[in-house]
Design goal:
This protein is α/β, with parallel strands linked by helices and about 260 residues long. It has a single domain (about 1-200, about 240-259), classed as Survival protein SurE-like phosphatase/nucleotidase (Stationary-phase Survival Protein Sure Homolog, Chain: A). It has helices at about 15-25, 70-85, 105-110, 115-125, 135-145, 155-175, 240-245, and strands spanning about 1-5, 30-35, 55, 65-70, 95-100, 130-135, 185-190, 200, 205-210, 230, 250-255. Strand 1, helix 1 and strand 2 form a beta-alpha-beta unit. Helix 1 packs across helix 6 (about 155-175) and helix 2 runs parallel beside helix 4 (about 115-125).
Length: about 260
């Protein structure tokens, strides 16, 4: 397939690079358009009030690559309108990720820039897939501070296995979906992930997410602080959150026609 690849962690994310390597190894033809800087938690926002710059550059991915100084949604919108040869007809689908951290459940899905990049592809009538990797805090801190995957070999093995699953599933799920379905396949990979990790169809867990900001400081400002979700899912639901916690790959289909 010919695929547009984006993310929300930025062009330097080692998980983006792992995904691109796996997609190439699977024989897919790729274009990469990713944020110049990290854009986590931006949801589907677009930069309405300032100009957005795009630039083509070699970031060692081995495929045509651009950066956009904007949100993940900006990246995909600008790519399909202006950057790719032949515009929207240049690609068969959009793959976003792999995100540094999981994108489960409902309380985080709507805020995710990773999912937003895939959703922007769906808005253009393309089949789309978002991929995210569960990490513990030490792994997340190492990778977000510029640490190398080579220095954490167990994590590297997990990410390479997740990327291989993503590349295989892109070749299955995206052609099955077809165009103008307004669906996003949301994949979340467990830690650890191996070639034998089971894929499970899930639904997003129903959660409450309180207190994502600190109390006001002396200057009246509040700071974002991560708060885990309180799961209110009925016990009979096979949820994304529980599936990843059980060491399996979660596959939720986000159907925007049913909202």
């Amino acid at each position: 397939m010919r695929l547009l690849v984006s993310n929300d962690d930025g062009i330097r994310s080692p998980l983006l690079h792992a995904l691109v390597a796996a997609l190439r190894a699977a024989g897919h033809e790729l274009y990469v358009v990713a944020p110049l800087h990290e854009q986590s938690w931006t949801g589907a926002s677009k930069c309405r009030h300032r100009p957005v710059a795009s630039a083509r550059a070699d970031h060692g991915l081995g495929v045509p690559t651009w950066t956009v100084d904007g949100t993940p949604a900006d990246c995909v919108n600008i790519a399909l309108a202006h950057l790719l040869p032949g515009s929207i007809t240049a690609v068969d689908g959009v793959v976003s990720g792999i995100n540094l951290g999981h994108n489960t459940p409902l309380g985080f899905i709507n805020a995710s820039g990773t999912i937003a990049a895939a959703w922007e592809g769906a808005l253009h009538g393309l089949p789309a897939m978002a991929c995210s990797q569960d990490l513990d805090y030490a792994e997340w801190q190492h990778l977000t501070s510029g640490g190398l995957l080579e220095n954490i070999p167990a994590t590297r093995a997990t990410i390479e296995a997740s990327a291989a699953h993503a590349a295989r599933l892109a070749g299955i799920l995206l052609p099955e979906t077809g165009r103008e379905r307004f669906l996003v396949h949301n994949l979340n990979f467990p830690r650890p992930c191996t070639a034998e990790s089971e894929l499970v169809r899930t639904v997003p867990a129903r959660v409450v997410v309180p207190k994502l900001f600190s109390p006001a400081a002396d200057d009246g400002t509040h700071r974002f602080v991560f708060s885990d979700a309180i799961d209110r899912s009925p016990p009979d639901l096979v949820t994304d959150k529980a599936t990843v916690a059980a060491g399996k790959i979660s596959h939720s289909i986000l159907d925007y026609t049913r909202l």
